[in-house]
Amino acid sequence: MQFIPQRLSALLLFALGTALALPHTSQAQLGITRPRGQQLLDGIAVKVDNQIVLRSEIEGIVAQEEARAQGKGLPPDLRCKIVQSLVLNKLMLARAEVDSVTVTDARVNSELDRRMNYFVQQVGSEKKLEEMYNKPLRVLKEDLRSQVRDQLVQQEMQDKISGKVTVTPREVKEYFDKVPKDSIPYFSTEVEIGQIVIPAQVNDKAKQAAIAQLNDLRARVLAGESFETLAKQYSQDPGSAVQGGYLGFFKKGELVPEYEAASRKLEPGQMSPVVESQFGFHLIQFIERKGDSYSTRHILLKPATGAADANGAAIKLARIRTQILKDSISFAKAAKDFSTDKASSGNGGLLANRQDGGSRMPLDKLDPAIFFTIDTMKVGHITPPLPYRTDDGKDAMRILYLKSNTPPHQANLLDDYQKISQAALTQKKSRALDEWYEQNRTSVYLEVAPEYAQCKILTASTDQ
Question: Which Pfam families does the entry link to (predicted)?
Answer without folding.
Answer: Rotamase
